[in-house]
Model the fold of this input.
Amino acid sequence: MTLKIAIAGVAGRMGQSLVRACETVDNCEIIGGTERPGSEALGTDIGNVAGLKPSGVEIVQSPAEAAKNADIWIDFTAPIPTLAAMTALDMTGVKAVIIGTTGFNEAEEKALQEFSKRFSIVKAGNFSLGVTMLTALVERAAASLGDDWDIEVLETHHRRKVDAPSGTALMLGEAAADGRGTPLKDLQTPPYDGITGERETGKIGFSVRRAGGVIGDHEVLFGSDEELISLRHTALDRNVFAKGAIKAGQWAVQQSPGYYSIRDVLDL
Ligand code: NAD
Done:
């Protein structure tokens, strides 16, 4: 059965990436897409906007119109438009909603969860399936290895990145801290610089590199006095997020309404 997808913010970076990724996935069709009021992309063809041949699907403003024949809605925009779309989708046949938008505050997150009575929702801050697997492996290793194993998270990104450590590095640190049953804020070491003193047992350290065009490289090192284990993920293409979101959609459309994470999709 072909999965019919409508995309919020389809002219954005992730929107375009989703349109291109769907071309490479079997039984996947983009049947609608929205843009914000006033966007120059309104009325243009979804294929053209993504640098592909015309698809015959025009970008519209109304989520209800874009999703009127859709099975799933994929949203990588911003918290307020994401929440507004959920209300508009209620009258459509959409079964599942995939949310990659980040930056929800607590009240918005709660409001979003209310919609899981109506839709199967998968929300994730990182839709890379490889990073999801790495997160599960890190939690498992941290839980099984004793506190005498040092844990160090190393991340490398392109020179244009403005924040550090990356959100994904912090997520990996949290997975390691979860494995140890302690909040990350109690285990995270300050950045190493100058006379730091000896490394404290049981702490989780972070190191950061910025160079060239690296899309994203994350490594978690576990070290004892006698041996080292290194778990590492390298993103080779920015379309990892789009492909992960489409895979989540294929999974979610078969689930009952509920609020799911990307780890549920991979059964991790
Ligand atoms: P972007 O700015 O390139 O795209 C967002 C698009 O949403 C824009 O085209 C904008 O015009 C559109 N938009 C805004 N309001 C709208 C409305 N009311 N209706 C329809 N469209 C509207 O940003 P991006 O890089 O594509 O990122 C978008 C979001 O996805 C951010 O929150 C980002 O943090 C998140 N993100 C998540 C992942 C992940 O794996 N979860 C990966 C990358 C980005």
